[in-house]
Amino acid sequence: WANAISGLAEAGAPIAETLGDRKRMSKSVATFGFTAYLHVNYRKPVFVGKTVLVTCALDRVEKQRKRYLKGVMTDAATGAVLADAEALYLIPRGAG
Fold first, then answer.
1. Of 36, 39, 44, 74, which alpha carbon lies 20 to 30 A from 93's?
2. What's residue 74's pLDDT?
3. d(CA 51, CA 74)
4. Percent of the chain topping pLDDT 90
5. Which of 16, 65, 57 lies closest to 39 in space, CA to CA?
6. CB 32, CB 73: distance < 8 Å
7. How far is Cα 60 from Cα 44, in angstroms, rounded to an integer?
8. What integer pLDDT is reported at residue 4 of this predicted model?
9. Could you tell me if 21 and 79 are in contact, meaning their C-beta atoms sit under 8 angstroms apart?
10. Which residues pair with 58 in a beta bridge?
């Protein structure tokens, strides 16, 4: 485990950045919202030098203001799930 990466700053950064990029595609807090929460489940260690694949998608929209996204980080070589995440973005009242 000497080459394992730990913590959100390192291991969770790719998944957090990908979820954030999904938000940035809309280019506006008024159209996609701001981060209310980001929950990352670490399933397996991420090792230095590994290539990972991160995917994310809009999971659901509730009450016009809540945007839920889900993301998964997998080992590119084996397909093993390394982490998964859910994020909630809120559109401010009166925005848009």
1. 39
2. 93
3. 9
4. 21
5. 16
6. no
7. 27
8. 62
9. no
10. 69
| CA–CA dist 88, 86 (Å, integer) | 7
CA distance readout (Å), 61 to 36, 43, 64, 67: 14, 26, 6, 5
**Cβ–Cβ < 8 Å for 39, 85:** yes
Query: How confident is the model over 29-76, as pLDDT tens digits?
Result: 556 678 888 898 989 888 888 899 999 888 999 988 898 999 999 999
Bridge partners (DSSP) listed for residue 26? none
**What's the mean pLDDT in 67-96?**
88
In the chain, DSSP assigns E strands to: 4-5, 34-42, 46-47, 52-62, 66-75, 81-90
Q: Which of 35, 34, 73, 76 is nearest to 54 (CA)?
A: 73
Q: Does pTM top 0.90 for this prediction?
A: no
Q: Let me know the angle formed at the C-alpha of 80 by 75 and 84, rounded to the nearest 5 degrees.
A: 85
